[in-house]
Design a protein that fits this description.
The chain is of the alpha/beta class. The chain is built from eight helices and seven strands; from the N terminus they run H-H-E-H-E-H-E-E-H-E-H-H-H-E-E. Strand 2, helix 4 and strand 3 form a beta-alpha-beta unit. Helix 2 packs across helix 3 and helix 6 packs antiparallel against helix 7.
Amino acid sequence: MKRILEPEVMDTWEESVAYDAMDFTEVNTVFVEDAITIGPESGLVLDLGTGTARIPVLMAQRKPQWQIVGIDLSQNMLKLGQQHVNNAELSDRISLEYLDAKQLPYDDNSFDFVVSNSVVHHLSDPVPCFQEIARVLKPSGGLFVRDLYRPENEAIVDRLVASIGSDYDTHQTQLFRDSLCAAFTVEEIIELLNQAGLNDVSVKMTSDRHWTAQRAGCNGR
């Protein structure tokens, strides 16, 4: 199935609220638990495409030794995210910034760990983003990126969309369908990572709808 692009940024207030209302608790918790297993004991962590900052909050609650920077291109997502950070009383350890992951202002070798969840499928070309990751990540730093996998055909898309049940409204269900159709395959991600110079990263399917790219840092467990 050919890839069908979707908008890179969901920046209307309605879209941001609809996204934030979707229950990703289980998926986000699994993401954080898996990331922690290869992350450093302490250090500076960058979350690319942090959205409404649900993942940084979970990470900070689990890893008090981490200082976390979350970036996103949606002002409204970040506005909601700041509310979540404030409500969790974590503003001293989580900072949110309005930035493009393809043009980061940070110095080379700045971060001990870079994570990203469900962002890559929004990018028409992920290579510039991957190149920036390679630049700002310390040589000994860890990487954990997870996103949706593009199914082989529409029948599989229909099955995956049906599997989310009736908990989501029509708009939320369409967002999920569009994201599946905009996603990459494992083979495509491996090639894109290699183009960006991140050829020491393991990429594999980790669910019936997700791939994960990871590299443990020297302090990872």
